[in-house]
Amino acid sequence: MSVSYKHGEGVSECVGLLISILLRYPEVGSIHFDPQTHEIRLTFIISGDRKILQIAEKRQAILEALQTYHQLEIIKPQLCAVEEKQHDHYSMIDVKRDVDTLTKDEISLLMELIQIHFPYALIVDISEEMWAEDIQIQDEMIGHMLEGIKNGIVDNKLVAYREEGKVLVFNR
């Protein structure tokens, strides 16, 4: 499996991973990857009053659910954090994980948890409806690329996000 730029040149597995996650999960607002710490940060945007939405309590519930998953799957993460940044009319929830122990199943679980806890407040960028086949292909690509970057060398810090229906990836 491979991902290519519009002009046909191949992209690194790390860039491909960020693209695939954003394509597969419209709930994700942005993704940051730091190659020095092997840390990935998924950011979700929640609109509305944080107290009414009980964001602090739900953030803690998401963290506890991820920790339970780690215990059940016998995963010892180097990093697992769920943080909140508050702004005027919205909040951002950052989920930080080390890519060395992250799995595609955990990413799927995280998306379910976010959807369950913020069904109406979550900002979702749905530019196109994905077909079941596309979802399965993206899931396979995420798993494949995630495994590839665990042992690979990535030189640049990367940030990826959506803008006007396109996925953009930049070196930081």
Layout of secondary structure:
Layout: H1 13-24, E1 30-34, E2 39-47, H2 50-53, H3 55-73, E3 80-86, E4 90-98, H4 104-117, H5 132-151, E5 158-163, E6 166-171
Antiparallel strand pairs: 1-2, 1-5, 2-4, 3-4, 5-6
Task: Note down, in words, how this protein is organized.
- This protein has about 170 residues and is of the alpha+beta class.
- It has one domain (about 15-170).
- The protein is about 40% helix and about 25% strand.
- The protein has 5 helices and 6 strands.
- The protein has helices spanning about 15-25, 50-55, 55-75, 105-115, 130-150, and strands spanning about 30-35, 40-45, 80-85, 90-100, 160-165, 165-170.
- A 6-stranded antiparallel sheet has the order 3-4-2-1-5-6, covered by helices on one side.
- Strand 1 and strand 2 (about 40-45) form a beta hairpin.
- Helix 1 runs antiparallel to helix 5 and helix 3 (about 55-75) packs antiparallel against helix 4 (about 105-115).
